[in-house]
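lol ok so funny story. i was supposed to be doing the assay writeup but got distracted and ended up predicting the structure for this chain instead. priorities right. anyway since i did it might as well share w the group, maybe its usefull for someone
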Amino acid sequence: MSSDTLIDANWLDYSLVAIYFGFVLGIGVMARRSVSDSIDFFLSGRSLPAWVTGLAFISANLGAVEIMGMSANGAQLGLPTFHYFWVGAVPAMLFLGVVMMPFYYGSKVRSVPEFMFRRFGTGAHLVNAISFAVAQLLIAGVNLALLAGIVRALLGWPIWVSLIVAGAVVLSYITLGGLSAAIYNEVLQFFVIVASLLPLTLIGLNRVGGWDGLTDKISAASAGASSASDAPPAAQQLNAWPGQALSGFDSPILSVVGIVFGLGFVLSFGYWTTNFVEVQRAMASDSISAARKTPIIGAFPKMFVPFIVIVPGMVSAVLVAEMIELKDGGTPTGGASGDVTYNDALLLLMRDVLPNGLLGLAIAGLLAAFMAGMAANISAFNTVFSYDLWQRYIRKDHSDDYYLRIGRLATVGATVIAIFTAQIALGYDNVMNYLQTLFGFFNAPLFATFILGMFWKRMTPTAGWVGLVAGTLSAIAVDRTAAAGVFELSGQGVAFLAASVAFVVDIVLSVVVSLVTKPKPAEELRGLVYSETPREDRTDPHEASYPWYRRTAPLAGIALAMVIVLNFAF
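and the output, tada:
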């Protein structure tokens, strides 16, 4: 292996990566032909079938953050990481499909902030649009930092060169084809990611002697750990519940409450039901029935993603020399960004167990994941920037061509800014910690405002923006108080606590402010509030004639039953 690269790839691996890049750019060029106006560019002309948007829904979330962050968590914490999927994703995805998607799709809004504008007016809309835009630039930076880490590991380039090259590739296909290019690439990326991570998981498990061998090795490492190690005890790593390693609470009861309320309700519902990156994929579908089924179809593969993402992280922690040293409290060198961190778990496992050829496929899969995540952030950012900020507050009543041009310029600007925000992400040894913090700041208060406004018609426009601002500030206050050392929680406990505080503060203030300010007249709330929206506006008239496996409710019921079984099994 050469001294300046982490992974020893050969011509076969590089050829596979080059073929993959050819496909990605080809999809961008082909999608360009179908972009004639801004709805085509930003929402794919609302023309895609449910299976395409369903796979894109998962792939948009299966970015660098998910793959590197979850494998890092797997290496560090073990099985409690499964909660991000079975408690922290699937239930909220089903709720989005069954309850909330009819409001988004039926109201014909082009973004989540636009829905906020119709429900609460300018104040809440402006706060939401700005905070969402900032969050996307920060999260795109996370994806870009990890993408550049791969390029550096593969080619030995300096990190800043890797950042620019990685950004340029993503930029080229979104600028060409808009959301259609992003979505069709996400479907391709989903299959590439699974095809690359499944062999890694199977070969890795085989090397450690299967599941029993893995559990034995984790128990042995825990029993012989040095005093410098901060790894949780083996019993906590090998059981998902009560999950103290993840929540940071010593008490099993508080840990379960923290995971179910903090992660399973506030962070999870806040992310999946109000995050325009995800919702945008469902909005691109061709009917209200397809829009509702998008997150439900996505829930089925989502349940099984932990087995190809978290398990390799756990294998890496007992098989890779550098990871064993790191987990035992050492500081090994030779990671993607210098010293080895938990974020390197997957890369180092690929280096140690994959033969050439499979290594090229795995690298293509990781590049696919990072580009899917970053493209999702940037395609959501350009929509919100163009429609919700530029068109509404800066230049109204211009031609459609003008806003299409602004969208493409916003894409370029976002990519350049992401190169700088990537530097922040490089300062975290586990990107999941950084990400959960961002979600607590931006998504938890938004979900509180959203859910109260959707089910309580008395909630007023003033309460909308006051709750959002107060919730965000309270989450930041909790995070900064913990950073100053006033209190301590391990794992991602601080992020869960900040999100929970933001949610409660937002709800309480929104109720108080609503009771002393004037609500909107009921006739203006049709399509925006549950009680004021007739059933026929919320359902597809054709759905009753479909076979059961194409209907929303039966599919959601099956998914829910499966995820309950998985929670009990592990």
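The radius of gyration is 23 Å. The mean pLDDT is 82.
back to the writeup now i swear
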